[in-house]
Amino acid sequence: MKRGTTGHYQITMVGGETIQAFIPVPLPPQPVLNLSGPRQRLLERATIAIGRLDSITLLLPDPNLFLYAYVRREAVLSSQIEGTQSSLSDLLLYELAEAPGVPFDDVNEVSNYVAALDHGMTRLRDGFPLSNRLIREMHQILLAHGRGSEKQPGDFRRTQNWIGGTRPGNAHFVPPPPDAVADCMAALERFMHDEDAPYPILVKAALAHAQFETIHPFLDGNGRIGRLLIVLLLHHGGALSQPLLYLSLYFKQHRAQYYRHLDQIRTDGDWESWLAFFLEGVETTAAGAVQTAQRLIDLFREDANHIQDLKRAAPSALRVFDALRERPINTLDVVCRRTGLTFPTASKGMAALVRLGIARELTGQRRNRVFVYDRYLEILNVGAEPL
Q1: What pTM was estimated for this model as a whole?
Q2: What pLDDT sits at residue 384?
Q3: 7-291 CATH pick, 1.10.540.10, 1.20.1250.20, 1.10.3290.10, 3.50.70.10
């Protein structure tokens, strides 16, 4: 449905140029969304897919294993959209020991993303409301060090930003002027907490994400925080018990469509087309996450069976294997701390995994060796290669 423009333009002066900054009207859309026909079927399929994803944790021997790696995969993907070139291996090496050769600035941004998500989820589980205060706290962590740390971490912007172009005067889109940001974000917060809004949580998440991207309340990090807002809303709204649904890969693969739909919301009020795109992404992404989890379950079972064939050497090798399942890039020192094995026993267990083709040594050195569970990373790396 085309409702016409979903806001108004305010003429301001920036750098000696006259520009038109867009101020969106508060949510929810008026008139109400048309959720009949194909959109209703899309919503039903996306809801079912989310339910399957949420229940996959019941099939995993240890849900935290999957969550640890999957969250980091999302951090890599979301940061890649913003231009970083870090891989999942880079991040795991960085977390292991800030390994030499890892691109520090890029991987630092990805590590900050993981920390911001962890902070947000912890706060929600402790009963803190999903609010602008929490969003600012996460933003402060996201830009705590590295690139962007000089761009007002944790504060709504006090200067004009823009999207596309080299300056506001030739930008593709100019978000609200800084003096309108607080009011726009206050209205968004009210919508997120409006229990009388006639929409299920998947629809509210779609609307809130698009509105956040239009407001663009920070000088940097808007895309990453906006994508995190989706998973926080789904968890807060009871659709997901764990933060397992991330649309970064879908947005990465359909970037042109993603930006076109956001533009059509602002210029035409076409929320329904955006919602259809979003729900298709939810269904596709949730199904992909379930498939990834199932592939990991099958991989772990298959490799554990191979290790059992080692007979007397199997018990210690299985304990080393458990450490690699927890952290697919690991050192013997860390394995010893996690398993309680002595260094010689851990070394023998790891050597057995190398002979079986389960683990591989990365450094080629005799000391401070690093081992990788290749097939585990291959499954997680699908779609997460640097742009």
Answers
A1: 0.90
A2: 60
A3: 1.10.3290.10
